[in-house]
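Thread: Newbie trying to understand structure tokens

Hi all, I'm a second-year student working on a class project, and my supervisor (Dr. K.) asked me to get a predicted structure for one chain before our next meeting. I've only ever worked with sequences, so writing a 3D structure as a token string is new to me. If someone could post the tokens and maybe explain what I'm looking at, I'd be very grateful. Here's the chain:
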Amino acid sequence: MLVLLGLPGFYAAQHGGMGRLGLVGFLTAFSGTYLIAVTGNFGFLAPVLAKQSPAALDSINQYSPVVIINGLAAILFMIGYVLFGVAMIRTSTLPRWSGVLVAVGAPAHLLGFGIAQLVTTAVWPIAILGSVCLGAGLGWAGYRLWQTPTASDVVASERTTAL
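---
Reply by user tm_fold:
Sure, no problem. This is what the structure looks like when written as tokens:
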């Protein structure tokens, strides 16, 4: 959920250097993350339903609008973060490897999670590693932006030293 608050600020700070690819990546990643967070009943409802009424959970997951929205959310999430990560790699102000972590981490997380849920739990480490990579990439780039002075900071600093 915090990504929904941080991603717009991150993009706003870097939009000039990310170009159209960054805009498309941001909008797509934000939309996918939003759909997963809002429609993802798994965070709040699924644990209760799985314990109380597993048949109800199965019915919800097989309901075609839910399947379509979840599929759309997954596609937007993966494509968006790949594009956003590539745009991060192309900027000169962010560490290139942070973009690589974002571009690789998001699909690894979602694919690992999906395969672990549907096929075998043996791939949970891929989902976890993908989450760590995505978070580390966004966190690293965010930290770099936080540590880099803005143009207004430089101007304000020059004004105070001139006095």
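A couple of things are worth pointing out once you decode it. The radius of gyration is 19 Å. Residues 56 and 62 are 10 Å apart (CA to CA). Feel free to ask follow-ups in this thread.
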